Amino acid sequence: MEHLTLQMLVVFVGLLANIGLYCFVSMRYGSWVGPITAWFAIEIPAVFIFELAYLSMATNPGSVLGYVVIYSAYFLFALSFVLAYVYSSVPSALVKSFRFRPATKLAAATLLFVAVFLYLPIFKLLAQNGFSPRDVYVVTRTGFGLAYFGSIVAANLFLVVMLFLPVSRWLKIVSFVFCVFFAYLHGSKGHVFVCFFILLQYFWAVRGLRIGIVRFSLFGLIAVVVAVVLFFLMANGIGFDQIISLMVGYSDYARNAVMLVDSLKDFHYGGVFLEDNLYTRLPRLIFESKPKDFGAFGLAKQFFPDSFYLDQGVPSFGLGVFYADFWIFILPVLGVAGAWSGFFAKVFFSRVRVYKSPSDFVMLCFFCGIGFIPVGGGYLLFEHFFLAVVLFVLCSISALRIMPRKFLR
């Protein structure tokens, strides 16, 4: 019981430290929605609050040392991000070096068509077999990569372009509602929340709205309601009274990271990172010999073999994959990673404020923790930059005057 109390103390201190960090950023910029809002909205419940609830019921949790290492890593990443974002100076050359194109209606129409077209094979599954969206998430783990990930990426880009277009507010609302419903049809709660994060990021970074603590609290309450409803809709065969227990289970990636600290003896020295960033970029349709036990999946095969061989999704290890690679050096590695993300988040925020470009906005979202490509592994910097270039190309077609300028803009 004493050890359990110490573990709860570690998590509770980490919770207070991260909340204090968020308050510091919010008061400094006069808005409670800012560069770490997406991180705060996901990590605070999943890593801290749900884990405290779990520890209050647990009988055999991980070691105190494991909790100290992992929760120190979470805080160090956030701290280095904030320090880099708040105190770094952005060279003017990075802001003025290249200008992306503004949004166009043709780009929005193209992305909408691509999203719907790529989703058609999955929609056929829904229509023929009566799958619920969560069933779709399970059965599309293998063989549907282009349809599943391509359609949700195109939908996210469509939402971004619509927000930047000078169209009516009602059309933007309809586009947002469509994207939320479309994300729901993919069977992942994370996809739905990305739509909300994109919207909040747009209000903060592009519109320059300063959101006070009362309105932020209201947003938080709405987010809790949406989360509970999504859990209920996507959890097959359980009652509403079991939803809270299911939500608490989503803190397992913090526990799994602690488990790696306690159990792992053979370290990979960057091998997990390299495999995650190599094999995730190889489509199985072309590279049929692509292994399934690469990177973090190899860890899942070792520690959760039943889930791995079912091929219906495996438990995540959170920051534990960095421990598997770098041992105790996880702390300086994540400190550098946080500073890197914080600095470039500030760079692209500055560019968004100057140019109002959806391409810069995509990069800002990426460095603020809002991923457009939900593959679940790898550091997808180059892929997000490629998406920014795709938007640039689509929005540049108007310059070629292939179609009437009135329609394009």
Q: State the total count of DSSP E strands.
A: 0
Largest sheet: none
**Mean pLDDT score:** 82
* SSE sequence, one letter per element: HHHHHHHHHHHHHHHHHHHH
Structural class: mainly alpha
**N-C termini distance:** 65 Å
Q: Ranges with pLDDT <50 over ≥5 residues? A: 401-408
Helix tally?
20
Question: What gyration radius follows from the Cα positions, in whole Å?
Answer: 21 Å
Query: What is the overall silhouette?
Result: globular
Helix content: over 70%
How much beta, percentage-wise? under 5%
How does this model look, in words?
- The chain crosses the membrane at residues 6-25, 37-58, 64-86, 106-126, 146-165, 170-185, 191-209, 216-238, 326-349, 361-379, 385-403.
- It comes from Uliginosibacterium sediminicola.
- Keywords: Membrane, Transmembrane, Transmembrane helix.
- This is Oligosaccharide repeat unit polymerase.
- This protein has 409 residues and is mainly alpha-helical.
- The protein has a domain at 100-237 and 370-408.
- The chain contains 20 helices and no strands.
- The protein is globular and about 60 Å long.
- The chain starts with a helix and ends with a helix.
- The model is unreliable at 401-408 (pLDDT under 50).
Characteristic terms for this protein:
transmembrane, membrane, 409 residues, disordered C terminus, Oligosaccharide repeat unit polymerase, mainly alpha, transmembrane helix, globular
Q: Could you provide a short overview of the structure?
A:
Helix content is 72%, strand content 0%. The chain is built from 20 helices and no strands. This is Oligosaccharide repeat unit polymerase.
